Each structure stands twice: as C-alpha cells, then as structure tokens.
Amino acid sequence: xxxxxxxxxxxxxxxxxxxxxxxxxxxxxxxxxxxxxxxxxxxxxxxxxxxxxxxxxxxxxxxxxxxxxxxxxxxxxxxxxxxxxxxxxxxxxxxxxxxxxxxxxxxxxxxxxxxxxxxxxxxxxxxxxxxxxxxxxxxxxxxxxxxxxxxxxxxxxxxxxxxxxxxxxxxxxxxxxxxxxxxxx
Length: 185
Description:
Strand order of the largest sheet: 2-1-3-6-5-4
Structural class: alpha/beta
Order of helices and strands: HEHEHEHEEHEH
C-alpha cells in the first residue's frame, strides 16, 4: 500500500497554485481577497482555485514566520502590505527591486532601503534596511480601477516576492492591479 502511494506521488505530484499572493496585516479583508481572486481569474483565464490570495499574515502574531517559511519554499509570488510592513519586508530582502522587473517603468514606484549582507559576520546584524534604496513596490490607490473597485485600503503597496517561480503570473497580477494591462497574455 505504501509503495503504491509513493509511486503515485512520484508519477503525479501535487500541484500548488499558479499564483500565491500574501496579504500582510489586513491590507485586504477576506471578502475583498475573494473578490480580487475571482476578478483576476476571470481576466487572466487562470482557474480561480489555482489562485490563492491569502489574508492570514499578521506580523503581530505568527504572520512573519509563516511568510518566511513560504518564501523559503519559493511559494509566495506577490506581497501586498501596508507601507510600514512593506518597508520592513524590503529591508529583510524578501522583495525583488522593480527596476529589474519588466513592465514596471510607468507605475508609481515606491523606494525603500533594501537588504545588505555586507556585515554577515556579525551575529547581531540583521541586514534590515541597511542596503541601497531601490523601488521595491507599487503604491495602490484611487487611480487603480481594480483596487478602487474592491475598496482596498489606502497606503497599501504591492511587490514581487524574492525567488518566485511564477514570475509571469506575478507580473500579470501587478499589471492587473495597476491597470497597465488586463491581466491576460
């Protein structure tokens, strides 16, 4: 029985979502996240059950640990967070500078000090926010039709997660949120 199970897992490995969005510190509530997930699915053609907009990342509780675990497994593609939380995450090196990403040049980019590992020999140095200031996020606001329609909170920034395996879908999601494109290929 165990051999059959292991063989089946090897031949037909479970697949994860095609896009995983981590929503930090109540940047969206559950119903807004569901609406966003549904609208992106309709626009992109990605089945709704293959898009995960996860609102259970509260940094005052265990949200940072959960984020770190999923980032280390390369599961997170996009991070939505209030500005102060986003700045902290950029400082930890959890985000990709958008000047390196395609299609981000016309968006309202927001810059933060990034990660700097130059002092990695000091066990008390976290590297947080001591690196070069680069554009890690896009501020979402009233001009972004999708964000306005789902009544997203003010002061929320979106960015691409470091080491995402699904950068095409993540870029499409950013374009969809900011209105640069309709989220289709």
